[in-house]
Design brief:
Layout (H helix, E strand, L loop, with lengths): L1 E2 L5 E2 L45 H10 L9 E3 L26 E2 L3 H12 L6 E12 L5 E8 L3 E9 L6 E6 L5 E4 L6 E3 L6 E2 L4 E9 L4 E12 L1
Parallel strand pairs: 2-10, 3-6
Antiparallel strand pairs: 1-4, 5-13, 6-12, 7-10, 7-11, 7-13, 8-9, 8-12
């Protein structure tokens, strides 16, 4: 079991006094252009094209890299409550910085995410703001996933993202509408926590693009979620 330390947790660099967490959709390549037929052969039947045989190994790779939640447009994360219907918030029993110290990692995104939020969710006084999203990233085929989230002013937010150990560096960033970057992480590891020692507080209602990506090489699953408590 691997233990979570300060060196393995992503923290956000503040740009313009803000910080945040995120994810991005992968980009596919454009289809190849059809071959040009010379004028004197325009009426001739096209030569048969060789088709690479499908092999069990190739199918296994395709199945492994399949992402059932893949979307060509940013995925909207729906808030579970608003300022007008807030839930009951638990009393904090541990600090935001202390909650993840020495946390053991199994190397499986879902297991490690559940373990992380069990220590840094309710015990720090936050409740789930949006249901966690899952996805699959690959450094060649699908490097990023994109999400959109409407944040309510007057709350402080915690952002948690965890990847399989086969992803060495889970990279997260936040953008305003239009592509202006608010912040990005500067450290390396399969666990990303926006502001690992405190929540990120908002004065006003605002929507952000939340993006997550694999940096460098690696492929595997990830889970990302958002928690909140009153400012």
């Amino acid at each position: 079991m691997r233990k979570l330390t300060s060196d393995s947790v992503h923290s956000f660099t503040t740009l313009s006094g803000l910080v945040a967490l995120v994810l991005v959709t992968g980009c596919g390549g454009s289809p190849s252009s059809p071959p040009v037929v010379p004028n004197n052969e325009a009426s001739a039947s096209p030569a048969p094209r060789a088709v690479a045989p499908s092999t069990p190994a190739a199918k296994a790779v395709a199945d492994e890299e399949a992402d059932p939640n893949e979307s060509s447009a940013p995925i909207v994360l729906t808030p579970l409550f608003t300022k007008h219907n807030p839930p009951k918030f638990p009393k904090a029993t541990i600090s935001d910085h202390e909650c993840w110290q020495g946390l053991e990692l199994s190397g499986t995104a879902k297991v490690d995410y559940d373990n992380l939020v069990s220590h840094c969710g309710t015990p720090t006084g936050v409740v789930e703001y949006a249901h966690p999203a899952t996805g699959h990233l690959h450094h060649d085929h699908d490097k990023r996933d994109e999400f959109k989230l409407q944040l309510a002013g007057g709350y402080c937010y915690r952002y948690f993202a965890v990847a399989d150990s086969s992803i060495d560096d889970l990279d997260i960033l936040v953008e305003r509408y239009g592509g202006d970057m608010v912040g990005d992480d500067q450290t390396k590891g399969p666990v990303a926590i926006i502001q690992s020692d405190k929540p990120w507080c908002m004065d006003d209602d605002i929507e952000y693009d939340l993006n997550v990506a694999v940096k460098g090489e690696g492929h595997g699953n990830y889970v990302v979620g958002v928690y909140a408590r009153p400012k």
